[in-house]
Amino acid sequence: MTTLAVVSAGLGRPSSTRLLADRLAESAAQALGGDVAVETVELRDHAHALVDATLTGFPSGDFRAAVQAVTGADGVIAVTPVFNASYSGLFKAFFDVIERGELEGRPVLLGATGGTARHSLAIDFAMRPLFAYLRANAMPTAVFAASEDWGSADTALPDRIARAGAELAAAIGGRPAAAKADPYDEPVPFEDLLTGR
């Protein structure tokens, strides 16, 4: 059985961060096929235990189980709201608690939410360096969802979610993601273009 751990740092209920995390998990699970177990860690529910673990250096109780779910998963989906142009403090504190080397080589799909699209670069200048330091394998496609992406028919959000989920599934399976067919692989000969064939 393949295991996916989903880390959601959303603060509200309902939360657009959790909504994005769930959509990414559904996409990855569908791309994986077969038997997939998804474990969602809502950091909001562990806020006090997270502070205790930061102070003591030892996670305990339900929070310890949450950390083990993430460090033992085949793949991780990590989603945060963007505050002050970066990930939330709760999100950072969680990954500070994880022991060095625990996520080394682990496929990780990054996601973030924010009020406007101008916050989307937080994934590249804040989240990617964090997971590079942890030596995790961050997927090439990350997904940012602004408020206007929800409920709009002409958004590319579903396509980005599908592509990111497929990349995570491929990385978990140890194979490269299937590339789209290149329309230039078999070009029409120039002579045929000239004669209209």
Automatic annotation (TrEMBL):
Key words of the record: Flavoprotein, FMN, Oxidoreductase
Protein's UniProt keywords contain Oxidoreductase: yes
GO molecular function terms attached to this record: oxidoreductase activity
Domain of life: Bacteria
NADPH-dependent FMN reductase-like domain ranges (all copies): 4-150
Pfam families in the cross-refs: FMN_red
Region: Disordered, residue numbers: 178-197
Protein name: NADPH-dependent FMN reductase
Organism this protein belongs to: Actinomadura verrucosospora
